[in-house]
Amino acid sequence: MHADILFRGGICVLPGMTCQADIAVQENKIVALGDLSHVIAPQEVDARGLHILPGLIDTQVHFREPGGEHKETLANGMKSAAMGGITGIFEMPNTNPLTTTPQALEDKLHRASKDAWTNYAFYFGGTEENASHLPTYETLPGVCGVKIFMGSSTGSLLTETDEVIEKVLSNGRRVVAAHAEDEAMMRENKKTILGDSTDVRMHPVWRSEESCLSATQRLVKLAHKTGRRVHVLHVTTAQEINYLAQHKDIASVEVLTNHLTLHAPDCYEKLGSHAQQNPPIREKHHQDALWAGIENGIVDILASDHAPHTLEEKSQTYPNSPSGTPGVQTLVPIMLNHVNNGKLTLERLVDLMAYGPQRIHGLVGKGRLAVGYDADLTIVDLKQKKTFSNDEIQSICGWTPFDGETVTGAPVMTVINGHIVMRDDELTGMKAGHAYKFYETIHG
Predict the structure, then answer these.
(1) pLDDT of res. 1
(2) How far apart, in whole angstroms, are the C-alpha atoms of residue 143 and residue 134?
(3) Cβ distance 253 to 274 under 8 Å?
(4) Per-residue pLDDT at 51 exceeds 70
(5) Within a 10 A sphere around the Cβ of 105, how many other Cβ atoms?
(6) pLDDT tens-digit map of 159-204
(7) Which among 33, 60, 81, 401 has most CB atoms closer than 10 A?
(8) What is the CB neighbour count within 10 angstroms for residue 283?
(9) Which residues on adjacent β-strands are paired with residue 17?
């Protein structure tokens, strides 16, 4: 038997087991797994002592192009992803112009295809204006789902009323991902709680846990009414975890690395506005509840919500400083450090970043190490020490809230569609990514 590339002796996280195995790749796909001593390949990779994971996916990033290229581009965002062991990304619609028309989507797909360091797909923004067209728009190639913002967005992307949300949920059948903060409650809180304060430690106070729970409850109630699957993004509160545990029939759950790793008030005292994001990083008991949600199987997906701003923008006086932090490059090593600390197993991490995205979004040919699947691999060294540095961040913003922090566990190779894109902290120059395909659009 012949193959194009052979990965020998890695510890492979397979569906149902983790074991040492060789992996043979031919024409971008996995063609054999197991003891492949008889297989001949022109390129061999010695993976002994390393863990081979299905290609990990970051399902929530903001790459700012078009309209915000001074702080991120699709090319640099995907470079950051590949450097961090991420084989593909789902990008959000709050760019300029908004991704709310077929023309805007086509423009993004064209831009991404020119510098495809990773695989990619785009959320289509759901609005009052385009709701009636969503059954058609959601089936366009490269669309991973529909996104609505119940809080913290601009223009027509802000769908804060139940009437508009119900209109979006009533049109189409693909999963609708939601930023669930109650905009009306937050507006009132900003007047009555935040007032004239410039203290960033107030961020999780006026953007309250009650506003998140209110929005999530409203969303789930409308999901049941319309029979539409919803995906609640960046859940931050114990109340939401407890509530969503009772509604797994209609709602899936995402949590973020930062909310699992940082907590208030410590993060604001140390990082200031560099820890400012929406929904906010909250107190330790909320973080504990998120970890319990992972342990209990309530959480389906883990992502970064990579949302870069320049250091100049972030240095503005709060609350004029914009919310959002970079994270696509640091996501995997931070989570590997949590694996080493016993917070979750490597298999659960794969479930959250490979199986979960495949299951929730219906990815074709992705998400597991199995014969016939695309050869997307995240290869990691669980013993390698890594110290984060702003200088190594590929994002145009050029910083990370974890600058100077040391973790144990690091991605050492990113393999996309059978091609090595990153090896030992260096990009190889191979732009091997493609637009993701989805079962619900395969005949669209």
Answers:
(1) 81
(2) 11
(3) no
(4) yes
(5) 21
(6) 989 999 999 999 999 999 999 999 999 999 999 999 999 999 999 9
(7) 81
(8) 16
(9) 14
**Euclidean distance between CA atoms 207 and 229, whole angstroms:** 26
CA-to-CA distance for 345 and 348, rounded, in angstroms? 5
Give, in order, the Cα–Cα distances in Å from 406 to each of 330, 336, 337, 402, 403.
Answer: 11, 12, 9, 9, 9
pLDDT reported for residue 153: 72
- How much is the pTM? 0.98
Q: What is the DSSP letter of 158?
A: B
Query: What pLDDT shows up at residue 9?
Result: 98
Structure-token pair, residue 113: 């295809």
CATH number of 56-361: 3.20.20.140
The SS3 of residue 379 is: strand
CATH of 5-52+371-431, one of 3.90.180.10, 3.40.50.880, 3.30.70.600, 2.30.40.10: 2.30.40.10
Percent helix, strand and coil across the chain, each rounded to 5?
A: 35, 25, 40
Return d(Cα 60, Cα 91) in angstroms, integer: 6
Q: What is the DSSP letter of 440?
A: G
What is the pLDDT, as a whole number, of residue 444?
43
Helix, strand, or coil (residue 17): strand
Rg (CA), the chain: 21
- Grouping H, G, I as helix, E, B as strand and the rest as coil, residue 372 is coil
CB 415 within 8 A of CB 87: yes
Residue 393 sits at φ, ψ, to 5 deg, of -75, 125
Taking the C-alpha atoms of residue 88 and residue 411, their distance in angstroms, rounded to an integer, is: 14
Residue spans per domain, the chain: 5-52+371-431, 56-361
Domain 5-52+371-431 matches domain 56-361 at the CATH topology level: no
- Please name the residues in contact with 227: beta carbons below 8 A apart, sequence gap of 6 or more: none
Q: What is residue 80's three-state secondary structure?
A: helix
What is the amino acid identity at position 287?
Q
pLDDT in tens, 306-351: 999 999 999 999 999 999 999 999 999 999 999 999 999 999 999 9
Q: What is the rounded average pLDDT for all residues in the chain?
A: 97
Q: Which of 208, 146, 184 is nearest to 438 (CA)?
A: 146
Spatial CB neighbours of 62, under 8 Å, sequence gap ≥ 6:
72, 91, 92, 94, 95, 305, 306, 307, 308, 324
pLDDT band at 298 (very low <50, low <70, confident <90, very high): very high
- Mean pLDDT over 281-288 rounds to 98
Both tokens of residue 270? 């140390």
Three-state DSSP at 175 gives coil
